[in-house]
Amino acid sequence: MKLSRILIAVLACTSLLLAQEAAAPAPKAAKAACMGTVVSVDAIANTIIIKTKKGDDTIGVESSTKIMSGKKEIALGDIKADSKVSVACKTVDGKKVASKITVSAAKVVKTTKKTSESATSTTTTTTEPAAPAK
């Protein structure tokens, strides 16, 4: 009889522990997106600093982060300061980590330079003395 009471108590405690673990979901990373202008890139520390409307944001870059410029995948070191970027990121342990960085193509301003070249020609006339008449 005592043995059955002990077994029931152990099963009840075990089921309570399992129920608590199942009820507590694993913390998920909060997702966010930010857009701005690149202030600096540190390829060694794997970070990028972006100036946004709210101020400067330092964002970590993982090896799995996709970095795109148009349809071309580029490296973190290829991003230049003053580039416009859009970053999809998640917050992990209170820090922003990029999952995808899209670099906007620089706007190309075509300038046409009209030059007016006037063709000048120089005519040189040489006169020779007439040959003596015979």
Secondary structure layout:
Layout (H helix, E strand, L loop, with lengths): L1 H22 L6 E13 L4 E6 L2 E15 L2 E2 L10 E9 L2 E9 L31
Parallel strand pairs: 3-6
Antiparallel strand pairs: 1-2, 1-5, 2-3, 3-4, 5-6
Mean pLDDT: 78
Q: Rg from C-alpha positions?
A: 37 Å
Please count the helical segments: 1
- In whole angstroms, the N-to-C terminal distance is 162 Å
Strand tally:
6
Please state how the strands of the largest beta sheet are arranged side by side: 1-2-3-6-5
Percentage of residues assigned to helices: 10-25%
- Shape call: rod-shaped
Structural class: alpha+beta
> What is the CATH class name of one domain?
Mainly Beta
The CATH fourth-level homologous superfamily of one domain: Copper binding periplasmic protein CusF
Order of helices and strands: HEEEEEE
Low-confidence runs (pLDDT<50, min 5 residues)? none
Oligomer: single chain
Main sheet specs: 5 strands, mixed, barrel
CATH architecture of one domain: Beta Barrel
Percent strand equals 35-45%
Annotated CATH topology of one domain:
OB fold (Dihydrolipoamide Acetyltransferase, E2P)
